[in-house]
Amino acid sequence: MRLIQFLFLALVLGCSSEPPVESEEMNSAENSIAGATDEDLFHELSDTSLLGRLFDDPIFDSSGMALWKPNYYERMSFRVSYDGLCHTNIDTIMYWTDREKRRCACVVLATHKFRKGNVLDSTVVEVSDCHFCGVALGIVLLAQQPDSSWKLYRFEKAFTTLGYFGTYRTGRQDAGSIALKKIGDPWTCISLKEGVGGNGGESTGYENLYSIEQFQLSGFPDRTLSTIFGYDYYHEEEVYGDSGIVGEWEQRTAMHILEKPGEYYDIELLRDSAGHTSIRRYAYSDEVDQYQLK
Asked: At which of 149, 169, 189 does a domain end?
């Protein structure tokens, strides 16, 4: 028994206590990581700088549009073009100043579905999609840093869709629109307004507001890109009788933003239906991150 204990003690004492030797390859890898550029920093908001990184080195065509190959999940979210690729461009860039007095940018990305050939020309390539298939919109939100670079704090490739037949810019008077709206002092959201469209005797047009701020007015983190308000600004239905269509029912709604210093602004909806006007007022709640009826 003593012999066994002696041999075990000798084995333990004979083990080397020196730290493991790091290879040159390991040191090189660590140095490379330590010196790498932060992936959420952009030095400029150009097509090649933004789209090149956001879509993992896509191909750029002559118009500056990024062509990238979607994975299986993305093919379920996007309307893929005839060539099996997604065609994405920067639709617009809008700027605002947040509660931290930072200059912020909202970059709207548009992914279009291209089809090849139509009834007149089998070689033509054009944006085309189904009646209620709008353009796929992505959102990139960034805040400018003291060194003038831009730090990304939210990115969604497929945020929502807008429009009809693959586009929201139909050229009609009631075409869709994208804009920033100030709804607090200071607090800003993005407005997506769908043009009027419909089928089967019913037409609607709506406007949705989404949060783009990184922080609430209280300073707590915000639920960025959540829906904070929405309403139909237009609704029309055909009225049927025994002999068929006997008239139309129409409702129009106007939204007014009521400013309040140092607070979230209230929203007022004026709804006109068949000559009758109603007014509803809404206030923003930090607890649910939405507007609620007062």
From this structure: 169
- CA pair distance 151, 172, nearest whole angstrom: 37
* Residue 241: predicted pLDDT: 66
Q: Does residue 30 form part of some domain? A: no
Task: Provide the percentage of residues in the chain whose pLDDT is more than 70.
Answer: 83
Number of structural domains (the chain) is: 2
Alpha helices in the chain (DSSP H): 2-14, 24-34, 47-54, 72-77
Per the domain annotation, does 23 fall within a domain? no
Is there a contact between 164 and 197 (Cβ–Cβ < 8 Å)? yes
- Residue after which a domain boundary falls, among 152, 169, 186: 169
Say how many C-beta atoms besides its own lie within 10 A of residue 91's C-beta: 18
> What is the span of the domain harbouring residue 94?
37-169
| Site of tokens 């040159």 | 24
The pair of structure tokens assigned to 193 is 């307004």
User: From CA 30, how far away is CA 237, in angstroms rounded?
Assistant: 66
Is 90 exceeded by the pLDDT of residue 225? yes
Supply the pTM of this predicted model. 0.82
Q: Determine the pLDDT at residue 11.
A: 44
151 phi and psi angles, rounded to 5 deg: -105, 120
d(CA 83, CA 25): 42
Give pLDDT, residue 6. Answer: 46
Residues of the chain above pLDDT 90, percent: 64
